[in-house]
Design a protein that fits this description.
Two copies of one chain form a homodimer.
Chain A: H1 6-9, E1 14-18, H2 22-33, E2 37-41, H3 47-64, E3 76-78, H4 82-85, E4 91-94, H5 100-113, E5 119-122, H6 129-133, E6 142-147, E7 156-161, H7 167-179, E8 183-186, H8 196-212, H9 218-226, H10 229-235, H11 238-245, H12 250-266, H13 277-291, H14 296-313, H15 318-324
Parallel strand pairs in A: 1-2, 1-4, 2-3, 4-5, 5-6, 7-8
Antiparallel strand pairs in A: 6-7
Chain lengths: ~325, ~325
């Protein structure tokens, strides 16, 4: 099923990571584990310590995914000057703050200084490539490569071409992320929030409503999700699930019966909560009750271990792909 | 973590399954595999053939879950007269059509003829126990035990007490489903669709919107879900996921930053699709493209195998619980 990654990655010897925050460090760790040298560009004075600490934190997960993690930092350098940082790389992955003007300035500098063959990708979750590229001379080169956090673990990368992004750039991006062991998905239109975050927003609105209304607690709602739709959607998405829910008649039968009942009986009564003071106080109190016993870092490590066990069970760890080649 | 199931199940020797459709057969298979004798009440003339065929179909899944499936049908009988069917059982699980008057009639007959100690549960996904019990002399005995389809595989059972359901009945139902190896969750209020189906409805509305708008195909959307939010929510629900997404500050920090951006920027622009002719035609065509290569039964078997691999990886197969006792 998966393409052999090495031939593609042979063309990616050096990467520039712009912005060494959580997303940037995660990309850096994955790139390094795949044998790509990384130069981090970030204006902060303590960026080296931050990135090294971040790498140490994610190394066990990379290791559990079957990726090599010895001397991970050997291929890592830092360069505070953006033009210099991108001057000799094959891929630029930008993870700067979500401010349009800032990203426009960054990308104007990058396109003037990066090699002509380099893949130019932004991790933005909210700004369309079309808008960022307005200030570029070669808008056809810029593409959104939006990871689902954290990029070194969760397979999805949403590839969102801008209006002027070239087909060649789309193909280049898709091949690169697939070679990294990710599951890239090219969107056919630019829409606010792309796809995964829109779906998260839709369900979370109802989650907040149900907790605010006192139907369930946060912990109870989470338990409901993990023991039903969560485990379903880990093995098949909503359309496949409802296709199978339609019996021999599949999705058309589902729509005709349960879909129409959903449209008339359920969609109109779904909640429209707001993050007013009372709701935020309730959500905060319940989060303390449900999750306050451990630090976020401990809970995240526990979650990631379970995540990897699940991915192994479904044959979806990237290390498995690399190991075959 | 899980209670030892045997002491509770010792009190459940015989069950009546009202309605031998897909849900009824699934409950019957699980009850039989747990050593509970089952009498099926269903007016259809060919009900014996239907139930036996259904049991044969789900036996491999029960087996893969670690449950005994030899001579599954040995404990199975059929009784077309409802009063007789429930006269000597410890649990009645009703899976009749979703029509209030019909369910009211059924439950009037059941309460007059079932033993006083029997647990009385309806699998309804849409009718509140309060409404069904209006016609009962002992409304405190009726409770919703709504499974997520199929009950023999997916752990969740939503327990929804009606306004007059007694606390004793709630406890009895929770202990029974837990002893079966399920993950029962008691809702604190009756709301239309309960919780899991409301959440499914909320996300599916946006799924239909994104496909109808041409942002992604059904197959692409499903791939996005399985490779991101699906695998996340299999190991931790939306609140835990966003608690961890908030970094050291947890959920309060998430709400203050990403939650408020969701409220102002995303919730207002989520889609409001309808199942008009063009949308249904598009969804039907895409389902044929995406899933038409195999029968629903083949796809379901494949899905269930993956589901069980996932549950094993997360240590959540009911057989594992039974095996420890």
């Amino acid at each position: 099923m998966s393409p052999t990654p090495e031939p593609v990655l042979d063309s990616y010897k050096r990467a520039a990571i712009i912005g060494g925050g959580v997303i940037g460090v995660s990309w850096a760790g994955l790139f390094l584990a795949r044998g790509i040298k990384v130069v981090v560009n970030d204006p902060r004075g303590d960026i080296e310590d931050l990135v090294l600490a971040g790498l140490a934190e994610i190394a066990p997960t990379l290791d559990a995914l079957g990726l090599p993690t010895e001397n991970l930092a050997a291929g890592l350098t830092f360069e505070a000057d953006l033009a210099t940082a991108v001057s000799d790389v094959d891929i630029v992955q930008e993870n700067g703050p979500e401010r349009l003007e800032l990203k426009q300035r960054i990308w104007q500098t990058v396109e003037r200084n990066a090699p002509a063959h380099a893949l130019l990708a932004t991790s933005t979750s909210s700004i369309p490539a079309t808008a960022i590229a307005e200030a570029m001379r070669q808008p056809e080169r810029l593409i959104v490569g939006h990871p689902f956090n954290p990029p070194h673990l969760v397979p999805l990368v949403e590839i969102v071409p801008g209006e002027r992004t070239s087909e060649a750039t789309v193909h280049q991006a898709k091949a690169f992320y697939a070679a990294l062991g990710k599951k890239p998905q090219v969107l056919r239109k630019e829409v606010p929030g792309f796809v995964a975050n829109r779906l998260q927003s839709a369900i979370f609105r109802e989650c907040v409503h149900l907790v605010a209304e006192g139907v369930v607690t946060e912990q109870e709602l989470d338990d409901i999700v993990t023991s039903s739709i969560g485990m379903r959607w880990a093995v098949g998405g909503p359309f496949r699930t409802f296709h199978l829910g339609g019996g021999p008649g599949g999705l058309p039968h589902f729509i005709e019966h349960l879909g129409r009942a959903m449209e008339s009986g359920m969609w109109p009564v779904l909640g429209n909560p707001t993050f007013d003071d009372a709701t935020v106080a309730e959500l905060t109190d319940q989060a303390a009750d449900a999750f306050g016993g451990s630090s976020v870092a401990e809970l995240a490590a526990e979650r990631d271990r379970a995540q990897i066990a699940l991915m192994r069970a479904l044959g979806e760890t990237p290390g498995a792909v690399a190991g075959q080649a």
